[in-house]
Amino acid sequence: MSLNHRQRHRLHRIESGLLRSDPHLAAMLAVFAGLAAGERLPAWEQVPSTPGRIQQAAALIVKAITILAAALSVLLDAVRGRATADPRRKAGDPQGWNPAQGS
Q1: DSSP-based helix, strand, coil % in the chain, nearest 5
Q2: Half-sphere exposure of 58 toward its Cβ, with a 13 Å CA cutoff?
Q3: pTM exceeds cut of 0.70
């Protein structure tokens, strides 16, 4: 697991504080860390790596774009359907144009 500078600095401060406040506990933790150094963490304890987060973000972006494209398609179909519904209908006339009445 790689940590950024701020996280490493924070851990160093915690370690320094522990060494000053309880040297016996710090020594026991050092022994434990040495014994467990070669072991791997269980999968459920591991933090997802950066590529996994990037893949999740990319999948969310693709999903959002797909939903947006579908919504735009529905909207354009509705506009097209309204524009071609009744070509004889005059704009602004809710009753529609009646050829028997004339213009």
Answers
A1: 65, 0, 35
A2: 6
A3: no
